[in-house]
Backbone:
């Protein structure tokens, strides 16, 4: 992403979070914008990115993006909660690129199903094939798609609780009180068998707007 940002004239980072990933780029284009919906992150990203000339826009993560047609050479994102392909295609210039890392299908599913039981229908959500098809339906050409599953080790039940309280969409509505029994069982399982292993799922997507 850093290499790409260094050679374009205008770019947009969608759902930038606190701006940490974008701030890691060595060189930013003359026109650089970022969107974010969560007010604490908007404030954090503003403090971090404004000194580098980035315009941070508070945006509800719903169409339309608050930018004109064909405004950007490059649109990036890391872990967007929602992907509005038609809007991405609209704000890209002909020949422009969308380059992003998405959360992939069945991410940390071992933990999800430990607490919620089998979730066969939800397992397919965010599948790379489906996202590629949606991008193409919006008029983009798929250049590259790479999927990866990466190991996560939970060495104690406290780490599980911390993760589920921070990544709140993993087990919606999670509380220690509600899942005390399963947590105790998991504690004993870790004590007897070692770390609880889960797999995070990530997809790298590169799509291009035709000239």
Residues:
């Amino acid at each position: 992403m850093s290499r790409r940002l260094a050679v374009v004239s205008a770019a947009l980072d969608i759902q930038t979070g606190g701006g940490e990933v974008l701030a890691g780029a060595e060189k930013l284009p003359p026109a650089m914008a970022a969107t974010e919906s969560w007010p604490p992150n908007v404030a954090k990203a503003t403090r971090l990115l404004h000194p580098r000339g980035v315009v941070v826009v508070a945006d509800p993560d719903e169409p339309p993006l608050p930018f004109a047609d064909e405004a950007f050479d490059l649109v990036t994102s890391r872990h967007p909660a929602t992907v509005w392909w038609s809007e991405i295609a609209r704000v890209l210039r002909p020949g422009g690129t969308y380059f992003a890392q998405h959360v992939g299908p069945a991410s940390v599913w071992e933990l999800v199903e430990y607490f919620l039981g089998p979730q066969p229908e939800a397992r397919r959500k965010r599948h790379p094939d489906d996202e590629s098809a949606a991008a193409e339906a919006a008029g983009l050409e798929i250049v590259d798609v790479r999927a990866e599953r990466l190991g996560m080790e939970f060495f104690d039940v406290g780490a599980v609780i911390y993760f589920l309280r921070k990544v709140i969409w993993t087990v919606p509505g999670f509380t220690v009180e509600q899942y005390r029994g399963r947590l105790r069982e998991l504690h004993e399982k870790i004590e007897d068998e070692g770390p609880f292993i889960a797999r995070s799922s990530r997809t790298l997507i590169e799509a291009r707007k035709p000239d």
About this structure: The CA atoms of residues 94 and 211 lie 4 Å apart. Strands lie at 10-14, 31-36, 55-58, 72-78, 92-103, 141-154, 196-208.
